[in-house]
Amino acid sequence: MGLILKHIAQTKSGSFQYRRRVPKDVSTIIVKREFKQKLGDSRREALAAYPRFHATVEREIEAARMQLTQNQIPQASNVTELEAYQEALRLRREMLNDGLTGSDMASAADLIVHRYPMDPETDAPIGASLADAYRINMLRLGPERLPAPQPTLDDARKLYLKEHLRADSPDTDHRVVGLANRVIDAAIAEIGCNPALSAITREDARRIRDHMLDRVKMTGKGIGEKVSASTVSRELSIISAIFNFAVVEFGLEGSIQNPFSRLPVARVAKGQGQKASEKRAPLPSDVLMETRQRVIAKATPELALVWRLIEGTGCRIAEVTGLLAGDVRLAGEFPHIRIEPNAVRSLKTETSRREVPLVGDALAAAKEALERVQAEGGNGSLFPSYGRPRGSDAASASLMKHLRKVSPDGKHVIHSLRHNMKDWLVLAEVPSLEQNLILGHTLGGVGDRVYGGEVAKLRATTRAMMRAHEMKEMR
């Protein structure tokens, strides 16, 4: 007889696991997708561990709901002074466009004033909303005598969510939006107000950092432990990015500096101080071969094609999963795939926009993928299951499950295939310029000058890729 408990599942290995999706109503507070914890290898162990972990989850969900109910986090609907000013400015502009005069505007301001009780001593409206206060002053004084308020950290957050993260789009990952909201809310709470960007000091930034480092999170066993330095570094980088974005968009360049820039984190984060090349390693030949065989045998045909294209081109996983059928160019002397931004995914850098030659198994995989799409009557995404926002994350997670069955080494990841291609190109003595053209690395401004046109580049990179393919087959 199995366990009859909510959110419990038995894995293929026989152990018992707690899995529960984060409720949608608190997804902006709890930014992970699900609660997940191994409870034990036997029914007895799972029964003993379940009550404590389930209670921890319930408390976290309830705390998030209370936080929303009590409005402890500033909501996007709250109007800042800058927003109130801009709205008042728009109202005045519309009235001018309608041919209204200064006396008309003063009369309109009086109408707003009369909505509120008046203070007999100051003859000012009592309890006027921030928006109405700015409307009154704008209509009476005009922008010449009513200077614009300084943009605040909350203004920076709202602009970043709207313009950069596009929070209103149905395709936006709301976990990312929730995380951005959470770190800005924490910063505002620590400073004690919604500060003007120009008023935030380095000392404020250090206090925010120290507060983040002092936070305690609950582990699956109900034990409290401080958050990792890597988590704090990531959160500070979000605040810094929001600050930098606002400085440019609000026209503050040259007048203020980012106090969060290069802010050191006290504890040493796991992997911190390592070069990117040290955090990931190429897959050894035996690991590469065994993982490839496993993926082709056990993964879906579509996912297997994704693997083969990554392995055979050195492209990033998002570059492959985001391919459109029209990006596969098989006609002509130099078959290739075209990597360019589209509605599914952007590119990491401008130099990532390129044509990558198809040789060997990568060419066969591209043909199979195109035939599959065309046979199903599609001409959009080359990989329909993954050609969507965050589809590359899904493909990566699925491929990593196969890779981990072969290698537990933390340096062995799907991105390792890109390092494999780099090694094959180096061993084949391919010049660095051709390597960069294939992998989408910075060219140093010489690529177009050396090759002059796309055909010349493709001829050179195809020749280089064939040499790398030969080197791969030899190892």
Properties at a glance:
single chain; 475 residues; mainly alpha; three-stranded antiparallel beta sheet
Description:
By secondary structure, the chain is mainly alpha-helical. It folds into four domains: 8-69, no CATH class; 81-141, no CATH class; 153-273; 279-474, Orthogonal Bundle (hpI Integrase, Chain A). It contains 18 helices and eight strands. It has helices at residues 43-69, 81-97, 102-113, 130-141, 153-164, 174-191, 202-214, 229-249, 276-279, 285-298, 301-313, 317-321, 360-375, 391-406, 416-427, 432-439, 447-451, 454-474, and strands at 8-10, 16-21, 34-40, 216-218, 224-226, 328-329, 336-339, 354-357. The strands form three sheets. The protein has a three-stranded antiparallel β-sheet. A three-stranded antiparallel β-sheet has the order 6-7-8. A two-stranded antiparallel ribbon has the order 4-5. Strand 4 (216-218) and strand 5 form a beta hairpin. The longest helix has 27 residues, at 43-69. The model is unreliable at 70-77, 268-278 and 445-449 (pLDDT under 50).
Layout of strands and helices, then pairs:
Elements: E1 8-10, E2 16-21, E3 34-40, H1 43-69, H2 81-97, H3 102-113, H4 130-141, H5 153-164, H6 174-191, H7 202-214, E4 216-218, E5 224-226, H8 229-249, H9 276-279, H10 285-298, H11 301-313, H12 317-321, E6 328-329, E7 336-339, E8 354-357, H13 360-375, H14 391-406, H15 416-427, H16 432-439, H17 447-451, H18 454-474
